[in-house]
Every structure is written in structure tokens, then in C-alpha cells.
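tl;dr need the bound structure. longer version: we got a ligand (LMY7XDAE) that a collaborator sent over and nobodys looked at where it sits. i said id run it. heres the input, straight from their email, havent touched it
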Amino acid sequence: MTAEIINGKAFAEGLRERVAAAVPEFHSASGRAPGLAVVLVGEDPASQVYVRSKGKATVAAGMQSIEHRLPPSVSQDELIALVAALNADDMVDGILVQLPLPPQIDEKAVIAAIDPAKDVDGFHVVNAGRLAVGEDALVPCTPLGCLMLLKDKLGDLSGLDAVVIGRSNIVGKPMAQLLIKESCTVTVAHSRTKDLSDVVRRADIVVAAVGRPEMVRGGWIKPGATVIDVGINRVPSTEPGKTRLVGDVAYAEAAEVAGAITPVPGGVGPMTIAVLLRNTLVAAHARLGLAAPEGL
Ligand SMILES: Nc1nc2c(c(=O)[nH]1)N[C@@H](CN(C=O)c1ccc(C(=O)N[C@@H](CCC(=O)O)C(=O)O)cc1)CN2
């Protein structure tokens, strides 16, 4: 079997267009554009690229982008004071603090300082709790993007066996919650899971989010399964001095067995920013007591 390639880049472009198409209605109702504030601390090269892309995508969708760049030496109190100012700013509907943060800053304390109504990353415990009990929540962008790709490919997910490899608060745990909500039978596997290959082999849906290059082998995949690869790992390329991106799944092997698979790059990655725009528009509507736009 050769798997169908799930084109996350194309799906993400469509979502971004749908968000952009819904912005004018919000503008008419509120007299302003939805606003997204992104805070970057330090000079991590990858984070700089992601923050620049977020700003560009926000503007392209007709929203207001507010960018704050803080030096790597900034204190936790200074960062939390900025978050408090953004919480109080009525023009700001979404707040995102780009991760990772420098070591002197406690990520949890910063996330806890964000108003849950503006937490477009969906990382605040209030949003994590709401998701866990099945209430309306702002949901982390990457797992929500994975779910959108799965539903687009498979339709109804109920009754399917899903394995999520990785138990991070940002991807693994919310992914499991979303799949439970879709009535999947969900196993969360991690570094201590015994016989991981056997666990994966039982799954109709495999979501790999461990951050270990090509750890999931083709022989672990059940024939016809749908494989969602969240990993973005930079490894040395065969050309000296160059690197290339690989996922957490050995793509060529897995594509021989799976029914459908996301590539890296061009699979899950582009969904993260598209869903961020979607969450910002949803948060903007909710803050004004407006119903969320349909089809997002
Ligand atoms: N506050 C947050 N910090 C971080 C998040 C997040 O969701 N919120 N996620 C990641 C980084 N990230 C967005 O911030 C992100 C990662 C990857 C991509 C993407 O489009 N990847 C491309 C490949 C890009 C490349 O060539 O390097 C792909 O997979 O096709 C977008 C956004 C950590 N921090």
C-alpha cells in the first residue's frame, strides 16, 4: 500500500482564507479588527521565524498584529507585567508568548498570567480544564490542527483506536482529550510505555509527538492506518554542513503501510499558525459576546 499524503499546507491555506473571509463581519459588528499580540523573548532563530510568520499571517487575514520583542535577560516580573498590560488592552483579543522561554523564566507562571479569554494558545489551566470536561475552550493550535486534518480525511472518528505518542501539555494531552471527545478509544504512550511497537500496531490513528527523529518505524504501523506526524526535527543531511527536517515517523517506511500520512515539512506544521488565526477570531467574537463564525 502507498499512503495518501495529507496536504496540511493546502488545508492550512484554506483555513486561513476562511478566517480572512470572516474578519469583515467582525469588523462591522465591533468597529475594529481582531487583535493578536505576540511576545517574543530572546533571539532563538526558530522562534524569530515563527513570530515573523505569525505577524505576516495575522495581517494577511485582515487582523491587527501587535508584536513585542523583549531581550533574553528580561525578568519574569517584567514579562508578566507586559502580559497584564495586554490583558487590560481592549484592542487585544489574543495573547501568545512564544515558547521556549529563557531559563530564568517559569513558563507556567507566565501562561497562568494570561487572561484565559485571550489565551489563543489554549495553554492556560482554565482552557485545559474546560477541554478536559468537554466545555467550550480555546484549544492548543497544533492538536486542533491535527484533529481538523483527521476529520477531513476520515470523517466520523467514533470507535476508532487512536494512539498518541507523547504526553506534553501542548500537544499529547490536548490531542488525547480531543480524540476522546470524538469517541475514539485513546491510548497515550510515552517513553516508559512497554512494547510501544505493539501498542502502535493496534491503532487506526497514530499521532506521533515525541520529538525524536524517525522513532516510529514503518513496521509498527497497522496497514491502512492514518498517521499524523507532529515532529519537526532538524538532522544532518547527506550534503556536508547542511541539515534537513524529519518527523517523528520514518516517513518512507510508514508511507508503504499507512492509508494516509502527513509529511514533514508541509503536514501538521502549517496548521499551527492557521489555527492560531482561527482561535484569535473565535476569542474576539467570544469577548464581545458574539457567536463564533461558522465553518472554522
Ligand atoms: N506559544 C507557542 N510557542 C510554540 C508553539 C505554539 O503553538 N505556541 N509551537 C511551536 C512553534 N511553532 C509555532 O509557534 C511552529 C512550528 C512549526 C511550524 C511550521 O510551519 N513548520 C513547517 C516547517 C518549518 C521549517 O522549515 O522550519 C512544517 O512543518 O511544514 C509553524 C509554527 C513551538 N513554540
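gonna send this back to them w/ a short note. Residues 50, 96-99, 121, 141-142, 232, 245, 264-266, 269-270, 272-273 surround LMY7XDAE (CB under 6 Å).
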